[in-house]
């Protein structure tokens, strides 16, 4: 029999029950036991759901209260010494201290999980790092699942991936030196799992899809030879791109099976089927775990049938990766357009597709004929739908020229004009865009959406919020204001709702980090902007103050990457459609008198392909899209962009080529380490390295921010440096926001006085 398995299930709950429980716990509305009880209920619901669908091997260990990499750090006892919370602290206290910081210690770094919008907590390593089995949580969850009659497949982050995604915190030391000690801990973990009568462990090594240095590949055989024979059978799991460059090495590896991603890299199958070992399982990720389109079941069955003819029962069927990146259940979407809904599959539906395919392999094609016909009909309906293509948009794309992506003068000339126009002090202070989204704001938006509030009443409520935000920024003493974004639910969804070519869900949430969830819109057709999206809000804010107010927009690459994107045309073409829509908004803002416009691109680095061979093509169209969006304005108009929680070292020439007048970046968690790359590159334009972490409730003092700014000034000219937080402030409360911003402004003023002396 061909078996089915799942690599991971969304842990947030179908209605974001985990988010609600976490935030209640952090507010101290519930205690630790209540939090754990709610988490257990979510796990049990997920397991039983997968069992009902018919998944043979169900993942255990894919659940996390905050992040699976942080879970691994806790399991291994690799808590940095700086988080010494005293004898009264519980394990959960230490867990959340690492994720969110403490009054005395900043949180651990957070960065993107490969090329997704999920953020993981970066492990910290030094010579003193010790590994031991320090938590029972994983083993308790195995027992929970078995008590429900679940046949668990335990999920672990692989040892090489765990080390690779971490960072050294001291010089002249390489984290690979820790591998022997780490493997000893893994052997103990595997032995304990075996003692619980678990047959299979899924051990994730997604770094194998990267262009790894040979030193890491050399350790692969050594690592898995060391783990062999410690109990459970090992399924080494890869995803997000091809690993066929390592096919021979992987086929010879001391594991009992391999998983490869056929959605992101369908071409790699032949390389693995050739001379595949007779004693190994081959799991094929045939259902896309990162997008929401229904599978072409006929094509998938054809691929699997070929593999089955060579592998027999050694073939397993699975999603391409964990379903962490997909919403939970399409059946919850009662308001979605029926035609568009017929094209989609969320996590529950994807698991159903997997069981359908396995049934077709086990019982014959006739057993699933009705499902194959339904899939084919959905494919054909989508292909022929008139709502997909817009001739006006396609004609405009064809008229684009090189001139459309160029400002009038180079940055040095623009900088002089902008300095004369705005007359800002040295080290101008600003924020990234959003201010706290209070419960009151959300209630107003919800009432308006449900038709319980008139348009005029909604308009006045939002204007009242803008007035209050402008007043607070005046009191804080910022130099450049924002309108606060009270009207926006999400930086992508808000704009998508006003563009043709997007569809929206009520429950299509996915986890970004911790309790932070996003609801990516579904980009199904050609993009067109029928009218201005932000001009009235920004113009109203500007009318309330003499300080410049930035227009706030989301850039085309981020609109693309943070949506569920159509798969019937190249991403590059969709990005240019989005760029033209944003360009129109930028020009309208300038014509309305807005002199600073921020086009956020936090997903710019995230979109970079995992293989370097594909970088140039991506960077060319991504840079072009940003420049088309931003280049239609006068030289006096200052274009800002923002990027966060990514590694920029390898793509700084492309970031410079975007030619934004000001870039703001996240640097506080890394203690300005990310800034070092911009310094080494000699980034030519103005830059605002974040001086405090907005993803933590911790309020840094003035001295701490002053130290970060002094470090920045060692390498950056004062006229080039801006002062700002790491990111938007929508998730924070007003008391902490005001306190932190006042300290930030005070730090900037102290430095100005020193520079003037």
From TrEMBL:
The Cobalamin-independent methionine synthase MetE N-terminal domain, residue ranges: 4-310
UniProt keyword Chloroplast, yes or no: no
UniProt GO molecular function: 5-methyltetrahydropteroyltriglutamate-homocysteine S-methyltransferase activity; zinc ion binding
Residues reported to bind Zn(2+) 1: 642, 644, 666, 727
Residues at the catalytic site: 695 (proton donor)
Binding site for L-methionine: 432-434, 485, 600
Catalytic activity: 5-methyltetrahydropteroyltri-L-glutamate + L-homocysteine = tetrahydropteroyltri-L-glutamate + L-methionine
Domain Cobalamin-independent methionine synthase MetE C-terminal/archaeal: 427-749
Annotated residues for binding of 5-methyltetrahydropteroyltri-L-glutamate: 16-19, 112, 117, 516-517, 562, 606
InterPro entries per UniProt: Cbl-indep_Met_Synth_N (IPR013215), Cobalamin-indep_Met_synthase (IPR006276), Met_Synth_C/arc (IPR002629), UROD/MetE-like_sf (IPR038071)
Enzyme class: transferase
Cofactors named for this entry: Zn(2+)
Gene Ontology BP annotations: methionine biosynthetic process; methylation
Chain positions recorded as L-homocysteine binding sites: 432-434, 485, 600
Positions annotated to bind Zn(2+): 642, 644, 666, 727
Top-level taxon in the UniProt lineage: Bacteria
Pathway: Amino-acid biosynthesis; L-methionine biosynthesis via de novo pathway; L-methionine from L-homocysteine (MetE route): step 1/1
Keyword rRNA-binding assigned: no
Entry keywords, A to Z: Amino-acid biosynthesis, Metal-binding, Methionine biosynthesis, Methyltransferase, Repeat, Transferase, Zinc
EC number(s) given by UniProt: 2.1.1.14
Record text on cofactor binding: Binds 1 zinc ion per subunit. Binds 2 Zn(2+) ions per subunit.
Function: Catalyzes the transfer of a methyl group from 5-methyltetrahydrofolate to homocysteine resulting in methionine formation.
Family, as annotated: Belongs to the vitamin-B12 independent methionine synthase family.
Protein name, UniProt field: 5-methyltetrahydropteroyltriglutamate--homocysteine methyltransferase
Species assigned in the record: Nitrosomonas nitrosa
Organism phylogeny: Bacteria, Pseudomonadati, Pseudomonadota, Betaproteobacteria, Nitrosomonadales
